[in-house]
Amino acid sequence: MAADATLARLLASAPQLSVGILTADLGHLDDELRRLEHAGVAMIHTDVMDGVFCPMLSVGAPFVAAQRTAMLKDVHLMVDEPLEKIGPFVKAGADMITFAVESASNPHRVLRVLGDAANANDPARGILRGIAVSPGTPLEVVAPLVDELEYVMLLGIDPGWGGQAFAPGMAARVARVRELIAASGRSVLLGIDGGVTKANVAEVAGLGPDVVVTGSAIFDGTADVESNARMMRSRLVASAAS
Ligand code: DX5
Ligand code: ZN
């Protein structure tokens, strides 16, 4: 798969922070992206919500295209039936497309279509394919799909609503996904998204994810964005190493 180089780079440099951009000052998007780049952030996470799969309506492909950055564009689709809706995000330059496994009547087909997509930033690269799994979804949903993906993202909160507490039982969920990935014999990233804060990032890192998504902990209106990002990255890396 052409995305192998990106996958290998992320696995080798894990854990990585993927920063949720929706809580940024979107009127100064370029400035916010520079601040994250200066802090060494490698991935920018865009939460696409259609108001159907989850109650919020957020942004679409034009917003992803508007992001002028060398950071990997990590697109998280929370949209009803994503199969016919992924094209514009591919054209917008997504490097990773993750969709809610609960949102697709045929998630295997969505992954197959994504597997044939060329990366708009560099046709030689593919697009990393991911499924996002909500806290209430049994993890056996991953088993039949693990041979068609490069990323499994476990949600720590129910998709859409902000300000939720990190779900209990995530350690067991991470362990089960690790088992399923090991059984597949494939290189697959494991991510955690939602409800990660300055207070719990060390605990979350201790679960051993390759990617941690966080938004409001970075754009929280207290210290400046760059120092928040540096602090979250250093806590993530330090805790993972311990
Ligand atoms: C939730 C989204 C998450 C969330 C992360 O539906 O997928 O990416 O917005 O943001 P924080 O870190 O603010 O929980
Ligand atoms: Zn997300």
CATH class wording? Alpha Beta
Question: How many distinct helices?
Answer: 8
Low-confidence stretches: none
Measured as a percent range, the helix fraction is: 25-40%
**What ligand species are in this complex?**
D-xylitol-5-phosphate, zinc ion
Structural summary, described in words:
- Helices cover 31% and strands 18% of the residues.
- With 242 residues, the protein is of the alpha/beta class.
- The chain has one domain (4-241): TIM Barrel, CATH 3.20.20.70.
- The chain has an eight-stranded parallel beta barrel with strand order 1-2-3-4-5-6-7-8, surrounded by four helices.
- α4 (87-91) links the parallel β3 (72-78) and β4 (96-100).
- The longest helix has 17 residues, at 225-241.
- It is globular and about 45 Å long.
- The model has no long low-confidence stretch (mean pLDDT 95).
- The structure holds D-xylitol-5-phosphate and zinc ion.
- Zinc ion (ZN) binds at residues 45, 47, 76, 193, 213.
Produce the secondary structure layout.
Blueprint: H1 4-12, E1 16-20, H2 29-38, E2 43-49, H3 61-65, E3 72-78, H4 87-91, E4 96-100, H5 107-115, E5 128-133, E6 151-155, H6 170-184, E7 189-193, H7 201-205, E8 211-214, H8 225-241
Parallel strand pairs: 1-2, 1-8, 2-3, 3-4, 4-5, 5-6, 6-7, 7-8
Bound molecules: D-xylitol-5-phosphate (DX5) and zinc ion (ZN).
D-xylitol-5-phosphate (DX5) binds at residues 20, 23, 45, 47, 76, 157, 159-160, 162, 193-196, 213-217.
